[in-house]
Amino acid sequence: MIVDRILALFGGTATEELPEPDARLALGALLVRVAKSDDRYRFSEIQQIDRILALRNALNPIEAAKLRATCEKIEAQAPPTEEFAALIRENVSYTERLGAVQALWQVMLADGIRHENEDALVALIEGTLGVSRADSAAARAEVAGGGA
């Protein structure tokens, strides 16, 4: 639903090979977008995305990798981040959005390198998702402290 609405705004359509889009796919696509935002999609980031998807969706490693692959396809078709995040905000609770921001921090910090464009993208997403700076800072601190 969410991704269909997003793609419809930009004249795109979901391909036949993509499943019925939902909030978990939208979050996965945002995770992929953050990982790619420094123009390097590192194995450590891919592993972290797979771990997050597995934990959040009760999937085994192979199922999580398949879900990530689907999210990569969705991310490639998705509109600009602001519109994408705004549509997610409309469809998930604050608690889920806060969990999404924590997951974004986990992916961003997975390779041990912070890039300006990653910081800027996470800040844009957290703001668009309506997550307070204080809550995001707490999520970041938890991730940085090993509470992933």
List keywords for this structure.
single chain; 148 residues; globular; mainly alpha
In short:
By secondary structure, the chain is mainly α. The chain is built from eight helices and no strands.
Written account of the structure:
With 148 residues, the chain is an all-alpha fold. It is 72% helix and 0% strand. The protein is built from eight helices and no strands. α2 packs parallel to α6, α6 (94-109) packs antiparallel against α7 and α6 packs across α8. The longest helix has 17 residues, at 61-77. 36% of the residues are buried.
Secondary-structure map:
Elements: H1 2-9, H2 23-36, H3 43-57, H4 61-77, H5 81-91, H6 94-109, H7 116-129, H8 133-144
Helix pairs in contact: 1-5, 2-3, 2-4, 2-5, 2-6, 3-4, 3-6, 5-7, 6-7, 6-8
